[in-house]
Every structure is written in structure tokens, then in C-alpha cells.
Amino acid sequence: MRVYISVDMEGVTGLVGADDVQMGGRDYERGRVMMTEDVNAAVRGALAAGADSVLVNDCHSSMRNLLADEIHPEAELVRGRPKPMSMVQDLDDGFGTMLCVGYHARAGALGVLSHSFMGHEIEDMWLDGRPMGEIGFAHATATALGVPVVMLSGDDVACAEAAEWDPDVVTAPVKYARDRFAARLLPAAEARKLIEEAAAEGVRRAAKAPRPARDTVPRTLAVRWQSASVASQLEGIPGVTRRDDRTVEVTGEVPALFRLFGVFSGVAYSVTGQAPYC
């Protein structure tokens, strides 16, 4: 079985603040080490459960966070940006399953470094009326491609969000949120043991369970922005309409919506210039 691992940074073991996860932050270099070690734990678990190959996608910020020379020698790495499909770049129906490492809760949740793709700029997102953030959108895109998402690591709030989205996802809570920039941390060795065990269990489940059918049904993505200027600019994209001054929506197949959302984000950054977590 080919295993795909999508890796964010905010949900990584030990990390709680912007300086831990932003390039140039005083603790960012240590954060990169922690991120790489969490990923390697997931790779070990996947291989122990019978994975034939593993592809890791670094999908946080610059997408150049993982230490390429320290990644498990049996895993390939997708690194750098721009990537048209961002968090699911190079994912296709040839993979048997997808694992999510270091994920965080959606905007508005009281989770560690919680947000949805862009700092404060995105207030809410919905897929067919169902509230979602990065966890839900990545999950919906993978399953639309026929690839089950079977494991997620992050703080307890992210793990609860994943379980609410899909109760079959095996979760590994590596820290417990006390506020948006504070958490009770598991010892690093214990956290990585949880990740390794959850990854192995997820891969074993995927090997036994029927794969989800590809989803080609058109879905509606809606995004509520902090700035009405962003919504106004996005209305110029064919197929995009405004529900109100700050909310846009568009309908299509989920993988296409995920790629289009990347265009939305690019427009929003150009209009607002807002950095994450401000």
C-alpha cells in the first residue's frame, strides 16, 4: 500500500506559539526539528503496518519546514511552493490512505494556533453548509479522490474536530489546549509513540476496509472573510457569487474547489497583506 502523509506544523508536539512555527521566529528552527520527528514517527508506524512506500507533503507556510536530510530514509518528500493542490499536492487514487500530522483546529475554535488557512482573515468556511477548516477540507478532498483519511495528530481540539468530521479517523492528541497560545504538553517521547501507534493502526484499518468511492457530486464551498474587499475581488472569478458583503460561494467537484481555494487565498493575501496569527 502507498501511504500519503500531509504535514502541517501548528499541531506538532511541543509547539504553541507563532515564534515556534513562523520562519524567522526565535524558536522556529527547534520547531522544524520537532516537526520532522513527528513525521518520522508517522512514517515508522506506516511502514510497520505494511506500507510499501510513503510520500510526505510539507504543507505549512513556506512548505520548506521539514529537514529534508533528516526525514526517514524510506519516505519521499514534496517540498516548496507554490503547489496547485497545497496540502494534498501529488495525492491521487493510487494511494491506499492518507495520514495527517501536526494539524490544528479551525478558525473560531479554542485550539492551539487555531485558524483556517489564513490568520484572522478567514472567519468561517462551509462545505454544503457544514462548517469546516483545514481538517475538513483536506479530508473531503482526499475522500473525493477515493483515498481514505485514517489518522490525524494535533492538539485535543483538532483531534475532536477530526473525530466529529469522521469518527473512523484514529487520533493522536500530543497536547491539550489551554488557550490559543498555551497547552499542556505530553512528553515528546510519549507523543511520538502515540503518533507511531495511531499511524500503524490507521494503515492497518485502511488495508482491511473498502475504499471510499470517488465523489464527483458538485459541492458548494462558502467562505466568510474578515474583509469585504476580498469578497468583492473574488466575485470577479467566473462561477463565484457573493452571499453578502463578506461571504463568497462557488460550486464544483471537491478537488477542483480545493485548487480554486488556493487562488482565493492568493487574492486575499494580495488585498490584505495580513500575516498569520496577528
TrEMBL record:
Task: Read off the Pfam families from this record.
Answer: Peptidase_M55 (PF04951)
Top-rank taxon? Bacteria
Q: Which Gene3D superfamilies match?
A: Dipeptide transport protein
Q: Which residues are the signal sequence here?
A: none
**Protein's name according to its UniProt entry:** Peptidase M55
Organism from which the protein derives: Streptomyces albiaxialis
